[in-house]
Amino acid sequence: MSSWLVLGLSFGYLFLLFGLAFWAEKRGKSGHSLVSNPYVYALSLAVYCTAWTYYGSVGRAAAGGMQFLAVYTGASLMMPLFWTVLRKIIRVSKVQRLSTIADFISSRYGKNISLGMLVTVVCLFGIIPYISIQLKAIASSFEVLTGTSAGDGSDFVHDTALYIAIGLGVFTILFGTRSVETTERHEGLVTAIAAESIIKLVAFLTIGIYVCFVLFESPAAIFEQVAARDTLSHLLVLQGDFAYGEWFWVNVLSMGAVILLPRQFQVAVVENVNEKHLFKAMWLFPLYLFLINLFVLPIAAGGSLVLGSMADADTYVLALPLAAGEPALALFTYIGGFSAATSMIIVSTIAISTMVSNNLFMPLLAGIEPLSKRLGSRLSPLLLGVRRAAIVGVLLLAYVYYRGVGEYYSLVSIGLISFAAVGQFAPAMIGGLYWKSGTRLGAILGLSVGFVLWAYTLVIPGVIGADLLPASWLTDGPMGLGWLRPTSLLGVEGLDTLSHGLFWSLGSNLLFYIGASFVWAQGSKERNQAEVFVDIFRYSTVYESSIVWKGTAYMPDLRSLLEQFLGKSRTRKALLEFEKKYKIDLNSSQLADPRLVTYAEKLLAGVIGTASARIMVARVVKEEEISLEEVLNILRESQQLLLVNKELRQKSTALQKATQELSAANDKLQRQDELKDEFLYTVTHELRTPLTSIRALGEIVHDNPDMEPEQREHFLATLVKETERLSRLISQVLDLEQYESGKQQLQRSDCTAEELVNESVEALQQLLSEKGIRLDVALQPDMPLLSVDRDRFTQVMVNLLGNAIKFVPAEGGRIQVSAYYLDGDFKFNVSDNGRGIDPELQPFIFDKFFQAPHQTKRKPKGSGLGLAICQRIVALHGGSIWVESQPGKGSRFSFTIPRNSISHGPESTDR
Amino acid sequence: MRERRTIQQLLVVLLFFLAASQFPLLGIFNKKVLVGGFPLLYVGLFGLWALFILAIGFLLRRRQKREEEA
Questions:
Q1: Which end of chain A has fewer CB within 10 Å, C or N?
Q2: Cα(A372)–Cα(A359) distance, rounded to whole angstroms?
Q3: Going along A735-790, which residue ranges are E strands?
């Protein structure tokens, strides 16, 4: 294939990427951001998949079967912890405006300069080889496509990697350093990265499907052929003494790398718009990894079958379609690999250049007071210049590395060594987030020791493998010192190189971190940061007041410092925000509020890194030393204040609730009082009616001594009836009063339902036959005995029957009484074909108080207390009473009496 | 409270799959056998992985639904 075609396509692709990034930035500025969406966030996390994934995985699978997968299962296993660990890192970074992992670690341990530098150096050593193998991957894939040999790289003019590096440098400078504020999101860049993630996935799936279903019949066909060959059995199972150990360690390493790699920190933390996006990313990102790895093993197996050792296994994805005469497909696959490599290079370069400028260069510059004073307002453009130079520098270093030593390494080995390098940050980082006592000295010592051991146990063996050091080091140790052998330090044997290196470097790192933290105490500034980091979710809204600061600062000094880096308009805006948040007027005094000092420092940190910001701020203000105790006391007080506030809020809501309940109870009481009044009124009214007629009749009889005997007889009979009615009413009121007050006692005895019903019916027999009403009684035979108060029970029955008699029509009145026993309850029904009860009134008919308002409308031929008494008697027996009725068709009153009656109230003592 | 519960459930998912994907349990799948034409280890690992993704997705979805209801 022509070199010009491939090169043209590569650059055409880069230009498309430029266009996409420009378009996304334009959209972002007009308020239609593409980036603030969880899918773009999840896709940008997939920058984890580099050329290593794209080419290297197939190569590693061809050599070691499923071993390649550990890098991706490990990263996936980190997902459940994203919501706790990553969210905490994001919150801390947003609150303190941290933009790199170097800044993060330096900030946690008291904004320490040397720690920031140390982290930066580790990243430079760990990541530049990683970037360089991406360049190598691009170059070698180019060579496979064009058919040029890999050996003639001596000619710079014809080296594609150089041109690609230049193109990527331009892209990164354009979209990665638009603003001095490193915490600002790079919309164009993130969009481009997300798009590249889609391209590499689609390209890889395409070649996978091609190999599985076009080149071979099916993946099963590939594996069956593999199974038939003994030489390929390593593709089917993990083999070798160290297989499980390596599998485990790579899993662990990848769990850390998915957060700790500078590029991952950049996309996952700095470019995060909304913490909630984590929800989607937590399952979308592992799904992405799952899909992109699905065809790796089949391709490796297919490649081994078809090509064997005729091609480098790292380039099977290109060599397979080429060998089958599908150049277009090979070209498409190449673009996928190109996008995987470029996205990694771009993001890593930005992250590292920010570290170099903010944690290496700026602290040095800020440290030399006369120099930084002389530069003054030119510092800000200078900073951008430094960052751009750092981008060029990083890419150049990567290129030089590739030209020099990179040729000797495979994609995967360098990748894993990089993982191990950033893995050294884990103790300081995770410890710093969850352990307040972790100290600066512990972090520095742990990281230094870890780094040295990492270099000795993991980098040196590779260097020896490239014939740059004598091979005797591996067998006899340097200078014949056997205990110094890089692959079995102090004689530790039985581990593969990676596990051995990790054991020593990470183990000592952790040991020194914890040990030194116990031995040497923290400073006050450091302790303050430790408190804020570990309890970030408590402090994040009131960050400025959580940093204890004492001293004198003047407004004009702080303002001019901010203007130096942020410019006038950005400074004015930031100060206005501060005024609004804390509700203070900054112009009222020349002296600055301590919180403003923290705020200014935080704003500066977003531009020049925390350590440099600390130096710059400390220079324009006069600080007083604060003791550790003072810091802790003030923090505790502010915490208690928060707590007291919270308690107060809780108490006031409780009070509110109590008030509401009280007023509800009051309303109820008032209503009952009204009802009582009404009842009294009704009762006296009811009493007066018969009383009036008794008196009138009495007077008539008294005043007319010579009245006709018949008439006198009639008057006297009425008089007696009215007196009876009166005494009945009074006894009912008394009855009711007894039930209400709980004085009524039940005289229980065992009776049959039949007895009870018959007794009640007999009492009314005369009335029934007088009115010509038909009564049907239907009782279930052989019911168990009831234990009830005989008289009270009959009272209920008689009352219900009496009501029915009152309301049935004069002609063709029918009443039915039935009773049965079911599931421990006796049930009695009294139905009639009377005029029924209005549904609206049904809920109230058992209520003595509600009887009153309707009495004038529809005056019943009774006291209106009968049903209320019935209800209380039934309740006393532990049962319930209710009515079903349809106006015009009749009513059915029912009540239940439980067999093992547990009666309500205190009156159930008679058992 | 609910926050804490979700975190704990996620932790359980992590521990379960961490144990299932490592030695000695991984040894169950590490056999030279083809299942439906695929190596047992391939089927086992990708199957576990799919379950893992489903478990996380399910937990977060349920949480989100509860949040919407509340």
A1: C
A2: 16
A3: 748-751, 774-779, 786-789
